[in-house]
């Protein structure tokens, strides 16, 4: 299982993102520096790299949807490498900046886990 730890300057850990086992859907857990789970990220069944757009739901521990991470596939282009997608993170503006940073790290981890070709 993959994980990503997020640090700020002076090697201060602010949290971690962990891949959790799931039979068919991507599941990530965002934890604070003490290891307490605060947010889950759930994807659709069997994300694929090409031919589709993807959405991952950001939900609180009580199941309330608080945001979305999305990937948009631009389509096939023979002149360029196919490794070109757009990613987005939609969260409330009032969310704490450290939580936003953790979700940005989760976006990078999702890209690495499911969509990178190299």
Jot down its keywords.
single chain, 118 residues, alpha+beta, 1 helix
Protein described:
With 118 residues, the protein is α+β, with helices and mostly antiparallel strands. The chain has one domain (3-115). Helices cover 16% and strands 42% of the residues. The protein contains 1 helix and 7 strands. It has a 7-stranded antiparallel beta sheet with strand order 1-2-3-4-5-6-7, covered by helices on one side. Strand 1 (3-8) and strand 2 form a beta hairpin. The protein starts with a strand and ends with a helix. The model has no long low-confidence stretch (mean pLDDT 85).
How would you sum up this structure in a few lines?
The chain is an alpha+beta fold and 118 residues long.
The percent range for helix content is 10-25%
Q: Please write the string of helix (H) and strand (E) elements.
A: EEEEEEEH
Mean pLDDT: 85
The number of domains is 1
Derived structural class:
alpha+beta
How are the secondary structure elements laid out?
Layout: E1 3-8, E2 12-19, E3 27-32, E4 37-43, E5 54-60, E6 65-73, E7 85-90, H1 97-115
Antiparallel strand pairs: 1-2, 2-3, 3-4, 4-5, 5-6, 6-7
């Amino acid at each position: 299982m993959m994980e990503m730890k997020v640090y700020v300057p002076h090697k201060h850990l602010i949290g971690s993102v962990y891949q959790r086992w799931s039979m068919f859907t991507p599941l990530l857990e965002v934890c604070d520096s003490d290891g307490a789970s605060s947010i889950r990220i759930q994807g659709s069944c069997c994300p694929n790299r090409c031919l589709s757009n993807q959405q991952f739901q950001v939900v609180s521990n009580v199941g309330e949807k608080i945001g979305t991470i999305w990937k948009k596939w631009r389509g096939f282009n023979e002149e360029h490498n196919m490794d070109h997608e757009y990613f987005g993170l939609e969260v409330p503006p009032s969310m704490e900046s450290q939580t936003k940073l953790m979700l940005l790290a989760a976006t990078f981890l999702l890209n690495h886990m499911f969509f990178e070709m190299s």
